Amino acid sequence: MTRPERAPLSPAAALIAALTAASPAAAEVPLSAIDWLSQSVSTPAPSGKVKAPSDAGAAPQGGWLPGTITASPLGSDNTAAPGLVPADRAGLKADFWGVTPSKDLARQLGEIRSDTLPAIQGLAESILVSEFTPVADRDPTRAIFLARIDKLSEFGALDPALSMLEELPQPTPAEFQRWFDIALLVGQEDRACAAMAKAPQIAPTLTARVFCLARLGDWPAAALTLRAGTGLGQIDKAEGDLTARFLDPELFEDEPPLAPPSHPSPLVFRMFEGIGEPIPTTTLSLAFAQSDLRSNTGWKTRLDAGERLARTGAIPPNRLLGLYTEQKPAASGGVWDRAAAVQALEAALTRKDKTVIGSRMQAAWAALAEKRLEVPFARLFGRPLANAGLSGADDRLALRIGLLSDEGAEIAAARLTVTPPPPIAKAALPLGPGRPAPAPLDHDSQFVAALAASAPLPAPPANPVAQAVSAAFTGPPVPDERFAPLLSGNQTGAAVLKALALLSASAAGDQRDTGAALTALRAAGLDAPARRIALELLILDQRL
Q1: How far apart are CA 200 and CA 213, in angstroms?
Q2: Alpha-carbon 396 to chain mean position
Q3: Three-state SS string across 47-68, please?
Q4: What is the pTM of this model?
Q5: pLDDT digit string (tens) for 202-232?
Q6: What value does the CA radius of gyration of the chain take, rounded to a whole number of Å?
Q7: Alpha-carbon distance 261 to 258, whole Å?
Q8: DSSP letter string over 514-535?
Q9: Nearest to 131 by CA among 96, 99, 87
């Protein structure tokens, strides 16, 4: 069979075809320590060898930063890296970092787990986005700021990471790299490339240069840069083949699809999307899931991404609820069952249908617990379920859901002070205002309610975590020998990060240091976050 003749190739396409046939193989580049971060702009092109023939694509108005992008020398006094909220608003001390060496703090920040309790993640994110006075050694390599950005990205919290980077008046090449990657992941490719065009002093690698020249409309320059970079071995074969297809996909329409890499950079991820071969994000780092929330993505894909991101608090619970209730589930099983369960519960609560609220709550709670989404669920439904007038096992579960909500302290205080109604009147009272008072709490419920309400704790249940919690919240906090020197020595941040690491271990099953870590948080002035963590340890992991 004879192929039909093609139209004459454009100059750019001819260059691409030539370089693709002749491109030399290159050694695999090792993955970076943080897989999702690309090296797309981290390594300058060798001086005097390859230079983009043109920066003709003019940067649009409204560039990245108000100042210039400069390669700040190490040791420069650029250490007051921004945060998004004042430290005191998050309940933290302005001198949180204190005198701990910056490299030690950066290491501790990097060790925060993303697969832990939501309350631990919540306190960690407050630390990551708060504005503190600089560490004593002035953090000459900006290690603390970079660790904060990397951890936010690991949590999938790209919006705050991007906002913090955009507060920098003079970003370093490492900071620009992270901004570039995040901008690609949130769909701001043109803005990223405009910033790159304005900042020739932060020389990108050639693949990024080719990509941005094309995005800015200078296709001949993009093709020439790709040809030169591939010929000199500065663009490896895999990226050269992909970039060639990105520049002119029609030239390769009869070729088999490219094999996607297992750890793509954001730049590679976007180019695969650009050639019509998108890489599924389900096995990629959480940061990539943000790209699946765009409105042009299918509902199931957005649901899967929304669940992953809600679990770490990267998107608010209301956004997850909006995804669950967007339309009627198209099938059964998996995410469809979770969406159906949430819709059924919301409908029962709207109708105030007391006959089915309990069973639908139990079903929805069990369904979302499979994906560790109990806390987002509680923040959505905790208050209405606490007010639903349930009884028995349904009331017990509704209380625990309420305690995990943002109104947990208020719900707990109300339950600790209720007076049971006369038995004869209980069944006749309506749901809502004037509803029957709930039944008295059993001992375990009294314990968790008192913990949430900051009330005196009754004797703890026969549970090692409950006993550790009781010891931590009875009397003034006295930190042990692992924390006392840090807290008295102006190293609050180090003490708090150490406590979070121990509490993450407790959530994973190693409960030896639960009480000591909670006591340390209280001694650091973080009583409320410590109580939330303790509640989740008891309710989610221990099912008290």
Answers
A1: 13
A2: 31
A3: CCCCCCCCCCCCCCCCCCCCCC
A4: 0.85
A5: 656 789 989 999 999 999 999 999 999 999 9
A6: 28
A7: 9
A8: HHHHHHHHHHTT-HHHHHHHHH
A9: 87
